[in-house]
Amino acid sequence: MNTTTDTPDTPARIMQRLGQQAKAAASRMAIASVSQKASALRTLAQLLREHTDALQTDNQQDLERAVANGLAEPMVDRLRLKPAVLETAAQGCEQLAAMPDIIGEISGLRQLPSGIRVGQMRVPIGVFGMIYESRPNVTIEAASLAIKSGNACILRGGSEAIESNKALAALVQQALRSAGLPEHGVQLVPTTDREAVGHLIAMPEYVDVIIPRGGRGLIERISRDAKVPVIKHLDGICHTYVDDPCDVDMAVTVTDNAKTQKYSPCNATETLLVARGVAAAFLPRMAAVFAAKGVEMRVSPDVEPLVQAPEAQIRPVEEADWSTEYLAPIISIKIVGGLDEAIEHINRYGSHHTDAIVTNDHRHAQRFLREVDSASVMVNASTRFADGFEYGLGAEIGISTDKFHARGPVGVEGLTSLKFVVLGEGQVRG
Amino acid sequence: MNTTTDTPDTPARIMQRLGQQAKAAASRMAIASVSQKASALRTLAQLLREHTDALQTDNQQDLERAVANGLAEPMVDRLRLKPAVLETAAQGCEQLAAMPDIIGEISGLRQLPSGIRVGQMRVPIGVFGMIYESRPNVTIEAASLAIKSGNACILRGGSEAIESNKALAALVQQALRSAGLPEHGVQLVPTTDREAVGHLIAMPEYVDVIIPRGGRGLIERISRDAKVPVIKHLDGICHTYVDDPCDVDMAVTVTDNAKTQKYSPCNATETLLVARGVAAAFLPRMAAVFAAKGVEMRVSPDVEPLVQAPEAQIRPVEEADWSTEYLAPIISIKIVGGLDEAIEHINRYGSHHTDAIVTNDHRHAQRFLREVDSASVMVNASTRFADGFEYGLGAEIGISTDKFHARGPVGVEGLTSLKFVVLGEGQVRG
Fold it and tell me: Where would you find this protein in the cell (chains A, B) (predicted)?
C-alpha cells in the first residue's frame, strides 16, 4: 500500500492492495452477525430498486461502447441492466436474507471415549475471487453470496460491463457500510487491464479460491495458471436415457423439455439414449416433436428407420458427436441394449455434469442414481433442473464439474468449510 | 497395457498401467455392497494375524538393508513391523468394518416448488494416490480407508519399506478378491524409482486426488508439481492460550499434556499464550513442570521474572520463534493482554492447524471457537487430541491444513464427495 500520487498504480499494485484489503475484511465478514448480514442484503435490494434509473444511465455507457465496438446483438443484450433484471437481483438478495444462516452451525457434536465432545463448525472459506463475463447482474449474485456466506470477495467482471459493474459495486459497498460491515468485503477490480486477472489467480496469501464463469477457454486457462484451487465448470454433455419400461408420454415430455426449453444452457440434454425395447414406441413420437421444432437429429443406423423429419434435420451420427456439447438445436440419438449400456455410455462419453433416466423400474432408477458418475443424477425429471435456484440453494455462484470440494450447483454451502470443534473439561491425552 | 516381455517396463509405463487398472477398479469399488466391504476388511484383519510371522521375515529384509545403509536408529524403529503394530492395524480394519457405511447415503432430500425432490448422495471420489515414508503400517491404514470409502487407491510407500509393503499389499489384494472386489482396488507402486512419483501426481485422467504424508519438503514439492488436487498437511504450529479467568490446575495439566506427552507430533503445542491476569498464578507452576521435564522455554521479557529453571532452559524468545514448529522439547511463551490479543497472535503466527483455550468464561470460549481460523479449535482440552482416532473418524488418512474440501483430520468422509440426486414424476422446467 505504498502507493503515492507519484507512483503509477500498476495492475500488480492494485491487486496487491485489493488482496490485502480483502484478507483484512474477511475476518470481520466471518464473524458478522446473522442480523448484520440480513440487513446488508435487504439494504442492497432496496438500493437496487432506488437506483434503477441511475443504473440505466451507467449501463447506457457500456451499451453505447459495445455497439460502437460492433458487439453482436445477443452480447449487447446480455449486457443490458433492464429494470426487470435489477428487480430479479433485488429479490435474490431478499431471498438470501430470509434463508437460514449456516455460518457457525455446529453439526455432529458427540462425546468420545476420552470424554471430549467433537463436532464440526461451518465457517467461511475466506476470500474468493470471481472472474466473469458480460452480464453485470452476476456482480450482485456474487456479492450477495459473499455476504450471506461470510466471505470476502474480489470481483473481476468483463471489461465491456465496467461502468455498470462499478455502479453496482458502489451500491454493494454502501449496503455493507450501512450494516456495520467492512466495505472491502466486496471489491470490484477497478481496472480492465487483463494483467490483473493473472495477479488475482496467483495470490494464495490473500485469495483462497477462484471461481471463473465463462467459456471453456477462459476456464482452462485459469485452471492452468492458478496458484489456488479453482471451482471449475467445464462442459455440460448431458444425457437423457429413456429406459424400458417407462411411461412413453412422460419420456417425450421430459426429453422435449431437456433439449428444447433452452438450447444454450449447460444442463440442456445433448444425447438421447433409448432402450431397444421402447424405441419403436418412443422414437417416432419424439422425432416428430424435434422435427416440428427444427432440431437436427444425429442418429445411429438403427435409429434412422424410426425417425421422420425433413432431410436436412437428419444425419448419421459420428463418434465425435457423443462427446460434443452442442448448445444448439442438435441432438445425438442412440439405441442401447438397456441400462448397463446406457450407464457405460454416459460414464464414458459424458462430462459428469447432469444425466437423467426416464423409467418405471425401481431397481433401474436406484442403479442409475448410484452408478452414473455425475454431479447431478435424475429420475423422471428434465436435466434442465440442474440449477442452484431449482435445487433450493437460494443462489448459485457456479456449477462445479469437479468432484473435489463442491460438486454440481454451488451455493452458500460450497463457499464454506468445516472446522473441528472440541469441547473438554480439562481432558488430556493418555 | 501394450507391455510385452520385449519392452522394458519403464516407470511411465508402470504408472500408466496402474492408473488404468485403478480407474477400472474404482467403478466396481464404488458400487461394492456394505457386506462386501466389511468382509474384505475383516478378512484383511485375519490375514494380518495369520501372517504375522511371515511378515516379520519380509520386514527383516527392509530392516537389514536399512541398518546396512546406516539409517538412524529412530528411522529403523519406525520401519519395524512388530506384532503389536500388526495387531493394531488388524483392529483398525475391524473397527472400520463395524462403522456405519456412509457411501450411498442420501441427505437433505426435500421437495421443491417445481415438485422435484432434491437431495445429496455421498459417493467415493474415485481414485486417490498416497505418497508416504517409512512406516509400513500406513499401507494398511490407506488400504482399509480406500475399501471402506469405496475408492480405489495407488500407494507409493518409502523405498526403505518396499519388501514389507509388497507383502502387506499382497494380503490386501487377497482380502479384496475373497470379498468379490477387484484386486486393483488397492495397488502398490512396485518400483522404488523416484520417477514414478512424478507420473502418479500428473495423471488427472486416472487419479482424482493425491495425499502426501511426510516432511514439509515432500509436501511442498508434490503440491507444486501435481496436476490434481492435493490434500496438504503443512506445519503444525499449535497454541494453548491460558485465559483469565481459568482453572489454573486444569491449565497446568492441559498445557503439560499438550507440550510434553509427545514432542514430535504435529498437534503438540509450540507456543503458550497466557492472559496477564493469571500469569502470576499460572506461570511459576507451569515453568516448574517444564523445568523438571527438561523443556526449554523461550520467553518474552515480562515472562522471565515468573519462571524459574536451570539457566540452559530459559532464553529470550525471538520473532522467528512464533512461527517455528519445534517438534522438540522447546516452547515459546508470551503474556498477552487477553482474548483479543491471543486470537490475533494465533491467526497471525499460527499455521491454522490446532489451537486451544483454557477458560472458565463462556463468552470467551465461544469467541475463540468462532474467531480462531484453524482446522481444530478446542476449549479446555489438550491440542494432542487433534487426531482422526480421537475424533471418532475410525481412521485417518492425513490431516489437512487447507480449507478447501477437507479440513483437519481426514477420514472416510474426506475421501468422498456429494452428488445431487433429483427424483421427479415427469416434471419439466417452465
Answer: Cytoplasm
d(C-alpha B260, C-alpha B269), whole Å = 9
Q: Name every residue whose Cβ is closer than 8 Å to that of residue A184 and which is 6 or more positions away in sequence.
A: A21, A22, A24, A25, A152
Beta strand segments in A322-392, E: 330-336, 354-358, 376-381
Distance CA A304, CA A300 (A): 7
Round to whole Å and give the CA distance between A127 and A69: 34
Here the cell at position B131 is 505418497
Is the pLDDT at B234 greater than 90, yes or no?
A: no
Q: For the purposes of burial, counting CB atoms within 10 Å of the CB of B73, is it exposed (0-12), middle (13-18) or buried (19 or more)?
A: exposed
Mean pLDDT computed over B196-216:
94
Instruction: Specify the residue for cell string 414406441.
Output: A281
CB-based contact, A269 to chain B, within 8 Å: no
Any CB–CB contact under 8 A between A426 and chain B? yes
pLDDT (average), residues B319-344: 97
**By the CB < 8 Å criterion, does B256 face chain A?**
yes
The DSSP code sequence of B89-103 is HHHHHHHHHHSPP-T
| B-chain residue closest to A392, CA distance | B112
| Topology given in CATH for the domain delimited by A11-231+410-421 | Aldehyde Dehydrogenase; Chain A, domain 1 (3.40.605)
Stretches in chain A below the pLDDT threshold 50: 1-4
